[in-house]
Design a protein that fits this description.
The chain is mainly alpha-helical and 305 residues long. It has one domain. It is built from 9 helices and 4 strands; from the N terminus they run H-E-H-E-E-E-H-H-H-H-H-H-H. Strand 3 and strand 4 form a beta hairpin. It is globular.
Amino acid sequence: MNLVRTAMLIALMTALFMGVGYLIGGAGGMMIAFLIAAAMNLFSYWNSDKMVLKMHHAVEVDQHTAPEFYRIVADLAQNAGLPMPKVFVIRNAQPNAFATGRNPENAAVAASTGLLEALSDEEVAAVMAHELAHVQNRDTLIMTITATLAGAISMLGNFAFFFGGNRNNNPLGFIGVLVAMLVAPFAAMLVQMTISRTREYAADRRGAEICGNPLWLASALRKIAMGAGRIVNEDAERNPATAHMFIINPLNGQRMDSLFSTHPATENRIAALEAMVEEFAPARAAPSSPGPWGRDGTVSKGPWS
């Protein structure tokens, strides 16, 4: 059902984009808008992962430079039946993580040094299982497409302000310009946020299945939310369009579960995870107990220490 809903929202975003082009320049404007969207999405499809990783100064690691972290990801990928993704570490004190890549064969997962230092092995495993769930559900591609279209709609709205009112082929005159300039970008933002929030709940559930214990992810979300509220992520603040990719919103002041959030409220996500406990085998280890991901409850430090 979530996949169907997401497909419908993306279709709505595409229709909205072409509608803005029609409001600005009629049938010709709609065709130009379609060509722009196609070009932007093609570029994003091949390059978005590299761009995002570079924006956040992520460094690729392997079994030699970050053995414990790499092993956790490798075990989880095997559990999920996924190809081994590239593994990156972000030198940032804010605990957070994200996934990127156009498909499971070209995926990458990244965790901050703040996350690796603050969370137990079990909690790190749960977070990375959540990110692998995004990869498995192809959310990374979906979010790239919606973010690209949302940005393009805003761009067309600016064009409408400067050029729309003087075009003879503007079918609705001033009203069309107003809709293209104000209403359409706002609607695109709401669609993008709705897709982001829908996919977070789905990734939480699948991530709990991959790592084997929903309480590990619930515990991790509490710690990450607390850290994200205290520590400013300068790279994320400079690139707010990437905020929806993180497991917890990295931007300051984003706490309400409203139409204007890229993520659901952390409390709601934790409640949903806790409600899943009965679906799993009894006597699961608590998040702070020794588990299959590590013996001392911490991730071994790497060369970033």
